[in-house]
Amino acid sequence: MTYTMPLHIQDTDDDDSNYILIAKIDNVKNVSQLLKAVHFKEECLNIFGASTVSGITTALHLCYAGYGSPLVLILEEGGVLTDCRIKTQETEEVLDFQFSPENVVNKVIMKSEILREAWSDLDMTSEILQIVMSPDKPYFRLSTFGNAGTIHVDYSKDSDMVESFQCTQTQSNRYKISLLKPSLKALIQSLKISIRTDEQGIICLQYMIKTEDEHVCFVEYYCVPDEEVEVGEYE
Amino acid sequence: MKGIIPGNNVKVFGRAIHALAKIGEDIYIESEEAGLFLQTVNSARSAYACLCLSPHFFAIYEEGSGIKWKVAMKSCMMAFKSLTSLEKNVDKCCLELGTNEDKLIVQLHQKHGMVKTFYIPVIESETLQAVFQKNGSASTLTAQSRLMSDGIQNFQASVEEVTLSVSPDKVTLCNFVDDEPDPTKVVHTALSLEPEEFENYQLNHCAEITFCLKEFRAVLTLSEGSNVPVSISFEDPGRPIIFSVKIEPDLEADFVLATLADHNKGQLSSSGSSSPQRNINKPTSVVVSRPRKSLNNKHAQEVVSKQALHLPLTSTSPSMEHKEMEEYVVPGTPPSKRFCSMFLGLSQPSQFTSMAPDPDEVLAEATDEEES
To answer: Which Pfam families does UniProt cross-reference here (chain B) (predicted)?
Structure first.
């Protein structure tokens, strides 16, 4: 998952000249909210405080001096400073899905609300979620195949909840529910979602999230289709 | 069979399924000219519910010429999980089952052009028939659901059974305390109602009836949502108590609950009243006969239905049943059936058999016959 949000990236000044990255934000909640959306372990987020007292915001000053250095977090709340240093680890190579907009075959933008409702109805005992996107009926269909039965949820392309419907060819792909589930955290917080698939069936779920300060941020989630399913196994 | 339930009835239907789900693990469905019948029975066979939806409950109803089938409750609940969503979002609900299909199709047409389709596997084609008399020599009380739900709210969540004591000038509802080692250490809750609070108060003789609260709550799930009264019919202890709900004009439901036999009488003659077993209580005389036929086989249906089985319902609380089962059930046997017969045979004092069906009549076998 990746996320993008506006942080104030400072030019290095005298005090901070040792750092290669310095970022400041007035309300740390904006960061922690997004970190939750990218499936961060909750306990790691306690560092940002769990206080929900209204009117009090915690400011964050984040610095990093480069390879081998700790990540420095300075939190300030009501004149109280907390200085944290988190040891950094070797990075694993980030998987590149090589999902490029030129290869997008189908694209739907809809309000998250209507997709949340579907998630609550789909059968989580199913191993896979099948997504059909098509210029013709059923247009946009989510299906699960669980122990208790098969469920299809269909959306009309003309629904008032569907903002944009650009499907050029009929695609039916299956994704492991266990892989898609983490993105629910982002879905819950989001206002809109853009669902795109490319020629290979790789799906990109882009969630639009508004922070407390009305900043618009995006969380993107990529998933490859499940190859192990035999054709005809599901209806 | 095809039925389309209009939006205003979808929530009622959903609530009916929720009420059934509080009782049994399967729903038996029958489509006839007179309407659609939904039935369920709990695993101990001490509670049974039957719902009848008249053809007018539907916008369109095409009967399935006596088509009968059984589906798992949890499958059905997938479609009707959220009552709020059913009320807010669903414009209409279509039910469909072809003659030779093995899937019941439930389709919810929702706002915003969303359609949810549920393919619910039909487990078996079988029926459930309860034998009970609704209008015998019973006493009948009718009260608003609200009165009763307010009443039972006073009981602790751990209360499993309640006793309804009815006399010409008072109705008392109290929790039934029986198998506690020290009854003085248990919270006793009793609540009195005046006959004037009831819409109908037709009493043949005073009675003290003890039944399970859990299934009574299921009755109220259905009736309270539509704000309709519940009629309670009962005779003597040990005879079934029947709760009837009518949601005008097209839905009628009967919930038949087993009751405990007169425990005072039992104590007099029971030698071991301190026994951990509840042997002072006698099962009721409710009988469920249950013809079964193989899938889509008219001939087999006729043959088997003549061998109607009589499964007496037991009168224990669920926790009690499990205790009993752990002691006596042979692993691998169907628990409920096994339990019925074991429980009757072991814990029923023989002097009470006059009020209950002869335990020897219990025919818990022969339901799995397959016709070719």
So the answer is: Rad9
Smallest Cα distance from A36 to chain B, Å:
27
Task: Say if B114 is an interface residue toward chain A (CB within 8 Å).
Answer: yes
Give the Cβ contact number of residue A197 at 10 Å.
Answer: 23
DSSP, collapsed to helix, strand or coil, labels residue B82 as coil
Instruction: Answer for the pair B93, B4: CB distance below 8 angstroms, yes or no.
Output: yes
Token output for A207? 């969630």
B119 inside 8 A of chain A by CB: yes
Q: How far apart are the first and last CA of chain B?
A: 25
Report d(CA B343, CA A46) in Å as an integer. Answer: 55
ipTM of the complex: 0.81
Would the CA dihedral through B313, B317, B320, B321 be positive or negative?
positive
Q: Does B268 touch chain A (CB under 8 A)?
A: no
pTM of the model: 0.75
Which chain A residues contact residue B119 at CB under 8 A? Answer: 149-151, 235
- Contact B118/A155, CB-based, under 8 Å? no
Query: What SS3 class is residue B211?
Result: strand
Q: Got the DSSP string for A46-113?
A: GGG-----TT---EEEEEE-STTPPEEEEEEETTEEEEEEE---PPPPPPP----GGGEEEEEEEEHH
CA–CA gap between residue A184 and residue A116 (Å, rounded): 8
pLDDT in tens, A178-216: 999 989 989 999 999 999 999 999 999 999 999 887 889
- The neighbour count for residue B125, using CB atoms within 10 Å, is 20
Residues of A with CB under 8 A from a CB of B: 114, 117-118, 120-121, 123, 148-156, 158-162, 235
CA angle in degrees (0–180, nearest 5) for B274-B278-B283: 145
